[in-house]
Amino acid sequence: VYASHTAPIRTAKAAALADAEACAEVGEPRKMVALCGRAIATGMLPDDVLVLTYSNRAFAYVNMELFANALRDYGAALRIHSSDAVTYAGRAQVNNLMNNW
């Protein structure tokens, strides 16, 4: 039986992707924060998924009224993909909620 040395990496990446997907689907903010956070912490998400995962966690933070955390996540997403209009819109909404014009 051949055991690949890359199998643990593939398994960890699959788990990170599964957490990111579950975060997008669960709908409950506290669970979203936990799932997205775990996926982000792996460092194994491709950039497009990472941007979406940061944005999903930011959305959860907004629903929990943790606006500074939401701004931090939107900023992280924009550092990865600086032209993402949806992320800019989310950040603008948070700034509006905080009366930051």
Please tell me about this protein's structure.
By secondary structure, the chain is mainly α. The protein has 5 helices and no strands. The protein has helices spanning about 5-25, 30-40, 45-65, 65-80, 85-95. α1 (about 5-25) runs parallel beside α3 (about 45-65). The radius of gyration is 15 Å and the shape is globular.
Give a quick set of tags describing it.
101 residues; mainly alpha; 77% helix; 0% strand
Per DSSP, the total helix count is 5
Which structural class fits the helix and strand makeup? mainly alpha
Q: In sequence order, what are the helices and strands, one letter per element? A: HHHHH
Tell me the major beta sheet: none
Mean pLDDT: 92
Give the radius of gyration.
Answer: 15 Å
**Low-pLDDT segments, ≥5 res:** none
Span between termini: 62 Å
Count of DSSP E strands?
0
How helix-rich are the residues, as a percent range?
over 70%
Shape: globular
Instruction: Provide the β-strand percentage band.
Output: under 5%
How would you summarize what this structure contains?
By secondary structure, this protein is mainly alpha-helical. It contains five helices and no strands.
SSE order and pairing:
Blueprint: H1 7-26, H2 29-42, H3 47-63, H4 67-80, H5 85-97
Helix pairs in contact: 1-2, 1-3, 2-3, 3-4, 4-5
